[in-house]
Amino acid sequence: MRIAELIRQLADRHWRRFYFQRRFMNPRVRNWVADRIAARRSEPPPPDPAAASLAAELDGIGQVNLCYLLTAEQCDELRTYFAGRKVVDLYRPERAPFDPLGPDRHPACHVANHLDPDILAAPHLLELANRPQILDILHQYFGCRPLISHIGAWWSYPTDAGPQQAENFHRDVDDWRFIKLFLYLSDVGPDTGPHVYVRSSAGQTGTNRIRRYSDDEIARAFGRQAITSQISSAGTAFLENTFGMHKGMPVRDGTRLIFQAVYSLYPLPQSPRQPIAPFDRHLTGDAGARQTSRLYLS
User: Is the pTM of this model over 0.85?
Assistant: First the structure.
């Protein structure tokens, strides 16, 4: 990283908080700090045995399947919508935005991302990320209401380069406590980049350096039986603690379109510094959704 860029980042409190918490990789320490942050929020979750049970599963295994949250017709609508919006190659920022299914993608580009305003304007997605079913689970898990601190939608493509970047096992270290919602917007089979997760790895130590890990390293550390692949149809979703080991398999055939929402205790460096759109343009007036979405919607 260039010195000027590091200085610019350290002037931003979001970046300072982000870098500070990444110095503490022991899960027990991270949970101790997160519990105290949540306790100060004075937002204890209401009694909800069903949500508490799924939150406990999320805490132990690190992943909760939510099954089909969108219909096939809604996913068709979203694929058509996003196919008509430009994407950017974050690993080649010098290249111009391009059509996700057009001919202008760099041959080594394995992922291309949509921009926040286009994601906010997409049908169904903000409503889904704020569904009471999901927010109740997360309220139980966090011990307070979390923030939607980042949203993303991206296409994954086949290349000849082999696994790149997040297509290798790694841990995310976004905040003291955070959860990600993944929603498949296209069918995902063995050749179209299934998400891979190592069950119960979020609470284990021994592989806590921030780096990429090989498949053999993960198998030795956790056992092959702990490694699971999310193969499913469009419209399926799951919540995941991505401090646990995970990766996206490289696409070998076709393309994959996925939506993600990140829930955390604090804003992230990628969070908008000001809300992007009015709340009432995208959601109805639920108080919990207003609080959870306040970084994006005013």
Answer: yes
